Amino acid sequence: MSFDIFKGRKSFKKSFINTNPTWQVAWGEVGENYEGIAWRDEKFLVILPSTASGFLAEKLAISSGKQFVVVGDIWLTNQVQLLEQLGIEPDSFRGNYLQLVAELWERWGFECLKQLVGMFALVIWDREKQVLQLIRDRIGSRTLYYTNSGAVRWIAPKLRTLSPYRSSDLDLVALRDYLCCGFVPGERTLWQNVRELRPGTVLQFPNDKVQTYWQLQEQITAIEQPLAWHGDRLRELLNQVIQEYLPPQNESVGIFLSGGLDSSSITALAAKFHNSPVHTFSIHFGSECPNELEFSSVVASHCQTQHHILEITFENMWKWLPETMAYLDDPIGDPLTVPNLLVGQLARESVQVVLNGEGGDPCFGGPKNQPMLINSLYGSVTNQNPLQAYLISFQKCAADLVQLLKPEVWTAVQTASWVFEEDLYSQASYLNRLMAINIKFKGADQILTKVSNLTQAANLQGRSPLFDQRVVDLSMKIPPEYKLSGVEEKAVLKQAIADILPDTIIHRPKSGMMVPVQLGFRKYWQREARDLLLSSNAASAPYFNQLPLRNWLNYQGDTWSRYGVKLWLLVSLEIWLQVNQK
Prior knowledge:
Keywords: Amino-acid biosynthesis, Asparagine biosynthesis, ATP-binding, Ligase, Nucleotide-binding. By secondary structure, the chain is α+β, with helices and mostly antiparallel strands.
């Protein structure tokens, strides 16, 4: 698909945005007039992208008994063990991961999902029973979208692929959620008639039955054991996971290295186990802005990596935002989206597989949980209930909805429930409740989809070892006091990797990757942002009042220097809406 969304605007160069097509599946009363059909039965149709040599055959497999057709995206770490369960010699197997799933499903059906370890979004068609199954991995490393109305249900791994089959009406509750969180949590998307399959679940057509084959649960064990014991267990698992996530030993590997504890841990473990060159990639935003290059350089030197540093200018942040939004599914208002794409493009010059440190905060008690813990202690003083406190902790627009949204929009969404409520008010320990929400929603709906889409856009394989399902499960077994206690965060992770990183990294204060959007709007992007947000033709104009937008653009009353973050959130949404117009 190609878009020229800024034609005629002096503030932007002529910008055409192309995204690669993906596979898609149709179920129901499907007509005849579709190009690229790779398989069809009476009520089932598979369309695959074509190449010079034909269809992308690795996206489709048929079981040996011809009963099951499997379509999807999959990467597994335990292929050898699965083949052994089937009685197949690994060296004699000539199929791919999809073919393996087809054989497993034919043998054990739904139960085989409990054995799969990896990342996947699958569609399985039972030709005999005429039943369709939609399946997503436990953590949400891969995405799967489907239309939820009409005579034909369309399914695809990318939301954009479903553009011809969706309405143009926004889901107003999803819009509210985006404004508060910076992403759309749960099964909703910004389009009214498109839904996202939740991690660890199977959706069955024709009866719309949802089955859960995995749930994130608190299972604290060995509370009598000291921190060192839990650290050793975590280290043993990390050693295994990292080795499984590395490419073959004759291929280089890349790592996005911020210099924080999480990415530094992944770097040190990869350097320990990989024989080929390890490339590390760090970013900064120029001389006007503070950076973490001091710490990333220490890690790169300590681990003897081939280190690459990319300066991301304010000009490039703005220039690449339309293309970045085109590669995403739902919009993501995190200012790191553009840097993620640009550093991925740099990494692709050296490697095909890149690892990252995503998952350390939600799994092991990062400092972003501290405001919520404080509120739990002093809620009677702040007069905030846990849900209000959680929404405000995102530091987006949760407190501005009444002023920002037009009255009819606010009326439509103000009493709608939130997807966080069940976990937030569960019986688990308070810290694990927060971490479960962050894993299930921020992880699956922001972090992992961002990693997946933007690394794929750069033709990379992006992998997040700290979000591996086994690491997540183990994190819920570790006593909370070994994750975040007072001001000491990630104690168990620090214990696990203490012998392979310098003390200056393990005990450095957490600062986070701060993208200078406040400076960006004040000094560089204000005019362009006005043109986008205040235009009567803005795609977001039907939903927002202009007064708060004008105040934010003029920085009126910006006591806490948060307007830049809000403006980036709104600009990202506006551009996303424009590049997704039919």
